[in-house]
Design goal:
Blueprint lengths: L1 H16 L1 E3 L1 H11 L1 H16 L10 E18 L5 E23 L3 H67 L5 H36 L6 E3 L11 H11 L1 H22 L4 E16 L3 E16 L8 H66 L5 H35 L4
Parallel strand pairs: 1-4
Antiparallel strand pairs: 2-3, 3-5, 5-6
Helix pairs in contact: 2-4, 3-4, 4-5, 4-7, 4-9, 7-8, 8-9
């Protein structure tokens, strides 16, 4: 009994002085410290940096060439008349520089298709970042409610232990006056032991749940008190929920972008079958010098410009198969989008139905607890009048606590379901 009193005092002190944390704070920490979210954000920045007019080929390309070479020649010549000519250490050098500008004027509008494809890729990456944030929030929400459910069950189970101990004391007293047997005392003792084991198991489960949630948010939550959300969530009709999902959910929006990207790739492929026209302009400078008993130097400069017409003949041989594959890509993305819409419709309908059933269950459990409290109040009067025994009254108290535990669990299940649905309909 002393141990139980100390434990009760410790838990009360903990709840008074423990720092509180809400679901909103947990979600913020989870997104802020998630490595997956950080990776997705960095990848998004990479794709956004690649989304430029230069990479799509809309801007001129400047090429700079610079080269130099040198040599030392030794020559020994013998002529038919006997003369000999010897040259040693003859130096020769050549230096050249050129600047060339190439500007694609027309490539079958391929440059515009490539720019659109870069934009689509950046949008896909942006939606994947939102996906990772949403997934992180869903996981954190589930873990938070697991901890919250366990935290709310522990005080009820602790009260259950106290009542079981009182029932054991009453049974022992009744045995001493011959109203109960040793068997009754053993049953009451076993009930106290079972309740104590259940409490320790639940306490161990809570510690593991808190450890898991701490890993998700990147911060130790061991000494925190978890606050149940107080916001009232409302669920509208299925069609309204669908429209909100399609407008905000990153998984659906990424599917739309993928389908548009497939169409853009097909247009870009068609553009490769048209000739390409490039404006080419170059300026070059060349200097050469040699030394063999005399100095010779030659400097030339050249300026060129014109139009260059090119057509990739090699790509024409498998053009039909590539066009067919690109059309198949479009069809695949359209079917994937349709499948996603069907899955979304079924999932949202299931979630709404589940929430409505949980709301009904909560209402019934509330009514049950209210009726149980009224019955317990009447039984308390009967106990005072000696019409029922203390053991019978304790049994009724335990039954009332069981109903309260069921009510607490059902309320949190309903709240968790509505929170997860709200996250899927996330407003950005």
């Amino acid at each position: 009994m002393k141990i139980l009193v100390c434990l009760f005092f410790y838990i009360n002190v903990f709840f008074v002085y423990a720092q509180k944390i809400t679901l909103e704070e947990v979600l913020q920490l989870a997104v802020l410290n998630s490595e997956n979210v950080k990776i997705a954000t960095l990848q998004q920045q990479q794709f956004e940096n690649s989304n430029s007019r230069f990479n799509s080929g809309q801007l001129p390309e400047l090429q700079l060439q610079l080269g130099t070479s040198g040599s030392v020649n030794n020559t020994n010549q013998t002529f038919v008349d006997g003369r000999e000519l010897v040259r040693t250490g003859a130096n020769a050098s050549n230096t050249s520089a050129a600047v060339q500008v190439v500007w694609n004027l027309f490539d079958g509008f391929g440059m515009f298709h490539r720019k659109s494809l870069f934009e689509s890729t950046a949008l896909e990456s942006n939606e994947r970042t939102y996906q990772q944030k949403l997934t992180t929030k869903i996981i954190a929400t589930q873990s938070f409610f697991s901890v919250l459910t366990t935290s709310e069950q522990l005080p009820i189970l602790q009260e259950n232990i106290a009542i079981s101990r009182e029932r054991l004391e009453l049974t022992s007293y009744r045995k001493s006056i011959g109203l109960s047997t040793e068997y009754d005392v053993l049953l009451a003792s076993q009930a106290v032991i079972d309740d104590s084991i259940s409490y320790l198991q639940l306490e161990n489960l809570q510690a593991n749940q808190i450890l898991q949630l701490s890993r998700i948010v990147g911060k130790s939550l061991k000494n925190y008190q978890f606050v149940s959300p107080t916001k009232t969530y409302s669920v509208s009709t299925l069609e309204a929920v669908k429209q909100q999902y399609y407008a905000n959910n990153p998984f659906y929006k990424e599917a739309l972008v993928r389908m548009e990207s497939a169409k853009i790739r097909k247009k870009s492929l068609m553009a490769t079958q048209l000739p390409s026209i490039d404006f080419v302009s170059s300026v070059s400078l060349n200097r050469s010098a040699s030394e063999a008993g005399f100095l010779a130097s030659n400097i030339t400069s050249q300026v060129q410009f014109g139009l260059q017409l090119s057509y990739p003949i090699s790509q024409a041989f498998d053009f039909s198969s590539r066009v067919e594959n690109s059309q198949l890509d479009v069809s695949i993305e359209e079917l994937a989008l349709k499948r996603l819409e069907n899955d979304v419709s079924n999932d949202l309908e299931r979630r709404i139905d589940q929430i409505q059933r949980l709301q009904q269950l909560v209402m019934l459990n509330k009514e049950t607890v209210e009726v149980s409290d009224k019955i317990l109040s009447i039984d308390k009067s009967k106990l005072d009048l000696g019409q029922i025994s203390g053991i019978d009254f304790r049994n009724l108290q335990l039954d009332g606590l069981r109903r309260k535990r069921i009510l607490s669990t059902s309320k949190l299940e309903e709240l968790q379901s509505t929170v997860e649905l709200e996250l899927l309909l996330l407003q950005r």
